[in-house]
Amino acid sequence: MQIISLNSVDSTQKYLKELIKQNSVQLPYAVTSNIQTAGMGSRDNTWESLDGNLFLSFAIELKNLPKDLKLESASIYFAYILKITLSELNSSLWLKWPNDFFIDDKKIGGMITNIFNDTLICGVGLNIKNVYKDFDKLDIKINKNKLIELYFQNIKKKYSWKQIFSNYELEFYRSKFFFTHNENLRISLEDASLQKDGSIIINGKRIYSLR
Questions:
Q1: 186: helix, coil or strand?
Q2: 3-state secondary structure of 133
Q3: Containing domain of residue 73, as a range?
Q4: How many domains are contained in the chain?
């Protein structure tokens, strides 16, 4: 995967989407930046930037995704591969449904995905060095460029959704102590039932991550 590194950008996702729109890059392709001034987060929020943290977006054509992956659960798939990568480096990071990275009970980052021109664009924000209050940072020291390299190596292994889900399913119980949002409502995950396609059922209603 070709990677372009920037010093500062408003949003790596917006920047990458513009490159794709202009047909100026060959996929798969990634953009990383030292500083991000208006990063995209869940529910149209922004992910605030501090220098030294990980700001990364990458694009993969839909035809190259695992055949058994439901697109609504792509954020779980790619977020969990990053979790695997960090676990191999002895981090205790875990993934709260559907796209938030946690250390213990503190959020340290997240994954967001969207589809554009038959392409899946994934964006990652992760506190590696610096952090605002109410958040935390990664529990190991690692060079972010090395982390990106190892992450993309794991993505190239092309795990099936079934492989990823079988591992994520064992850890889902940790999400039950937290909340998620759906249709602008804050919903407890305490009684959520995880389904094999990555969706959850709460009070008889099926919810996909859609992030």
A1: strand
A2: coil
A3: 2-167
A4: 1
What is the per-residue DSSP string for 68-131? Answer: T--GGGHHHHHHHHHHHHHHTTT---EEETTTEEEETTEEEEEEEEEE-SSEEEEEEEE-SS--
Q: What is the DSSP letter of 64?
A: G
Residues 145 and 161: their CA atoms lie apart, in Å, by 26
Instruction: Report the CATH number that the domain containing residue 70 is assigned in CATH.
Output: 3.30.930.10
**What's the pLDDT tens digit per position in 64-103?**
999 999 999 999 999 999 999 999 999 999 999 999 999 9
Q: State the average pLDDT for the chain.
A: 91
pTM reported for the whole predicted model = 0.92
| Residue 176: inside a domain | no
User: Is 85 domain-assigned?
Assistant: yes
Give the closest residue to 31 by CA, choosing from 121, 111, 116, 115: 121
> β-pairing, 54-61 with 29-36?
antiparallel
pLDDT at 172: 97
**Exposed (0-12), middle (13-18) or buried (19+): which is 121, by Cβ within 10 Å?**
buried
* Residue 96 · residue 102 · CB < 8 Å: yes
Residue 21 CB partners (closer than 8 Å, separation 6+): 116, 117
Please check whether residue 204 lies inside any domain of the structure.
Answer: no
60-71 in b/e form (b: 16+ CB < 10 A) is beeeebeeebbe
The answer as to whether 208 is a domain residue is no
Q: Considering only CA atoms, which of 124, 143, 128 is closest in space to residue 57?
A: 124
**Cα–Cα dist 34/49, whole Å:** 9
